[in-house]
């Protein structure tokens, strides 16, 4: 499993992280792992609430962040968009795209609106989450914290690209 991550500045205070990986499963199985509450809890978060487009959800990530979100787009099996902490100064978007690559599936996840000074923590976190997704698909346990600890120094040294305007 080779996750590819990048970070970019959106403005002087906010940024985005983008990670992607290709999984040895079909698009319907990966979509199910990314949208079904019982499967989400195996690799990234406990999700409860009104799980439908326009619905408000509560999310408790493995990374310990907990808070509200809203489902903006759920266009299976290819596109998901969530607004986290909607209506606050800390509002962020998490967007995921799935695409078939033969009998495998590519997942691209981007989170936008993150504090620029902590972007490396989020990059390492998202890469660790996608690694855990691969572990979950293989029937293995989460190793999020260990992986995050390994990846954080790597992301600290990575450049933050400037967004083209």
Structure description:
The protein has 165 residues and is of the alpha+beta class. 30% of the residues lie in helices and 41% in strands. The protein has helices at residues 27-35, 37-43, 119-137, 144-157, and strands at residues 4-9, 14-23, 45-49, 56-61, 66-75, 79-84, 92-101, 104-115, 160-162. The protein has a 9-stranded mixed beta sheet.
Spell out the key features of this protein.
alpha+beta; nine-stranded mixed beta sheet; 41% strand
Shape: globular
Order of helices and strands: EEHHEEEEEEHHE
Helix content estimate:
25-40%
Q: State Rg.
A: 15 Å
Q: How many runs of DSSP E, i.e. beta strands?
A: 9
* Approximate strand percentage: 35-45%
Under CATH, the homologous superfamily reads: START domain
Mean pLDDT: 95
CATH topological fold name: Alpha-D-Glucose-1,6-Bisphosphate, Chain A, domain 4
Low-pLDDT stretches? none
Q: What's the story with the biggest beta sheet?
A: 9 strands, mixed
The N- to C-terminal Cα distance equals 33 Å
CATH architecture descriptor: 2-Layer Sandwich
Number of helices: 4
């Amino acid at each position: 499993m080779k996750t590819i991550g990048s970070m970019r500045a959106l403005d002087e205070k906010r940024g985005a992280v983008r990670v992607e990986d290709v999984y040895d499963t079909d698009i319907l199985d990966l979509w199910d792992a990314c949208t079904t509450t019982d499967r989400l809890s195996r690799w990234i978060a406990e999700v409860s609430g009104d799980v439908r487009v326009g619905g408000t959800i509560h999310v408790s990530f493995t990374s310990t962040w907990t808070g509200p979100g809203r489902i903006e787009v759920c266009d299976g099996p290819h596109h998901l968009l969530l607004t986290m902490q909607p209506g606050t100064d800390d509002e962020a978007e998490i967007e995921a795209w799935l695409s078939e690559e033969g009998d495998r599936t590519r997942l691209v996840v981007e989170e936008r609106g993150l504090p620029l000074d902590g972007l490396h923590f989020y990059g390492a976190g998202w890469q660790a989450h996608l690694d855990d997704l691969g572990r979950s698909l293989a029937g293995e346990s989460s190793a999020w914290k260990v992986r995050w600890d390994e990846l954080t120094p790597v992301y600290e040294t990575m450049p933050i690209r400037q967004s083209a305007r």
